Amino acid sequence: MASSSTHPLRHSVRDVARLAGVSVATVSNVMNRPDVVTAATQQRVQAAMDQLGFVRNRAAAQLRGSQSLSVGVVVLDVGNPFFTDVARGIEDRVAEDGGMVSICSTDEIMEKEARYLRMLQEQGARGILVIPAAAKLRHLEEIARRGTPIVLLDRASRSVDLCAAAVDDVRGGELAAAHLLGLGHRRIAFLNGPSSIRQCVDRRRGAARAVRAAGLDPDEVLVDIQASSPKADGAEPAIEVLREWPQPPTAIMCVNDLLATGALRALLRRGLRVPADMAIVGYDDIEFVSLISVPLTTVRQPKYQLGYTAADLLLSETQPDHRHRQVLLQPELVVRASTGIAQRRSASGDADMAGSALASSLDGVS
Amino acid sequence: MASSSTHPLRHSVRDVARLAGVSVATVSNVMNRPDVVTAATQQRVQAAMDQLGFVRNRAAAQLRGSQSLSVGVVVLDVGNPFFTDVARGIEDRVAEDGGMVSICSTDEIMEKEARYLRMLQEQGARGILVIPAAAKLRHLEEIARRGTPIVLLDRASRSVDLCAAAVDDVRGGELAAAHLLGLGHRRIAFLNGPSSIRQCVDRRRGAARAVRAAGLDPDEVLVDIQASSPKADGAEPAIEVLREWPQPPTAIMCVNDLLATGALRALLRRGLRVPADMAIVGYDDIEFVSLISVPLTTVRQPKYQLGYTAADLLLSETQPDHRHRQVLLQPELVVRASTGIAQRRSASGDADMAGSALASSLDGVS
DNA sequence: AAGGAGAGTTGATACGTTACAATCGACTGC
DNA sequence: GCAGTCGATTGTAACGTATCAACTCTCCTT
Fold first, then answer.
1. Measured between CB atoms, does B111 come within 8 Å of chain A?
2. Residue of A183, B79, B251, B327 with fewest CB within 10 Å of its CB?
3. Cα–Cα distance between A92 and A122 in angstroms, integer?
């Protein structure tokens, strides 16, 4: 009675039709257009399905013309907590439309990206959400032209005609810097990562913008220091460098939370108080920064919402009147202990005091 | 020239065949059995494919009998860092076989689980890795019988004939407790979560086993305290309870790291020193516990390996001589500052001193 | 009472691919 | 030179479903 050979116990619509005493067309109608079928036949067919344990073959359905259920998500690494939250947002939106999500970690390897993109196309995916590994986006446009909608994740682009959803990193940098400026800081170290990463560049740019908005000169207020790695221990050497400065900063703005954590540890180890001697701002609001000894002020990204919005854009691609859109989501400043409560400092007064505290403590350690 | 109506610019093997001047069978052979095709024709066909931008239709291929590319992963919540690492292990193993992973978060809602399981079956998934939401596993066995292999994740079960990969939580609890016992602790609080969760029960059981192995009585050494929630702030009330005890513990063993973090904070806030006055052991080794003020001793689970192994089991299901296996992976103790270095304590000497330190500090706070 | 409308149902076809059996040459061994 | 062999290629029949035009009834209209 079973039809397929690969799945020994799997029945087809034909089996159901025979058992219910109807045609296969009616069985199909029960599944796809129940409104045209009498309630009575509907029940009869449903009963037959249940009795046989019928599961419909999506491959066949899809071949005949309907859409696939799945949406591809091509990212750097699902293991990364940032993408994880984004992925969850995507999944929830896609589930609303009865779909599911295929996860693809590229590890920033072009061949893996290419391989996954191809598989998703072959599979007839409903669409692909992608954080591109490279700057080039031509191949993505090509894929979209070929019928598989593409939405850029966390990467807006004016040069490309695709939908995109991203978080405004310039704005995030601006928020963080404005906060520090508001607290009176006039000399701020910017602990940055590799300038090949867009986020690093944008956040730095935002900080400069905030400084200018305060009527100050970025070149005087912001001093750049480079992390040796984007992880926590990448901050250590950078902090060490501070001692060489004649006019040390009173605050450190870090391009991500891990670096901020490392900076915090490095400072505490040198006997400095945070935020009294040095304020710290992070970026990302990863879960635990509220739990560490000095809870971190940081910039929170609407990660879940980013995913949800991106998926929403993707699912709207099918609509006939669709026009590509680029959505920019806004980050949010989360103030915690590492920057202390607002207090005015004169540009050269308290700030210098804090500076000398650093200098002496660094001397003491070395 | 294009054949499909859904994808306007999509060509079929027929188009490729025509352009290359061969039959469709040859085109198919080039893709699936290149060894039977001349190098010359192979090139010609490949050129035609490239020129047309041909992408093969997996739905059709699958319908004709071949396997789907994707493996389903049905878990509680992809957002959870534990699953995230597991997922990555799965993805890597599946990718080795040229597949990809479909992610499904059930949020422990039975209907969502059922819906996803059905979709995966319909889609003809290569198999499903699942952390079951409920105790009942009959429906999973049924699915496996119907031809979609199932592997239980982080949940062994003797009553069910399925493959399974899990981490030995009993052993993990034993490791942690044995470590504390080895340091001389003779009164250990076990900060537990809801007993409806298998992990909580198993870890507690492992602790008891370690105590017995040391020739002691679990009822005297272990004292159970219940967290009000499985998150960090769930520890606070539990710590508060300690003050009421005539004979306070010298160590706290927590069922997960978040609770341990909360416990640490609660203790520090009361002026206690960790580990001098009270040792703490966590469980999970989530990323940041090495970064907090007192780095946490904890039990690390081989998460990635769990995923990798489970996927490996799944992919081996297809082999004709397959027999279901239940793999139990071993956790690992990671010793950090929160338990200090080994030091002998007499059962009633130093331990009591630590105990009284707690008692007085608790008096001072309240 | 004849005709028509409309609601349910159905037979047949196409979707794109695969793999089997069949075909076609060319070449080997005798 | 001929039967036999082997390698390369091809025609074709599925796979399970969705859709459309066609068909059958029933019931209403005139």
1. no
2. B327
3. 24
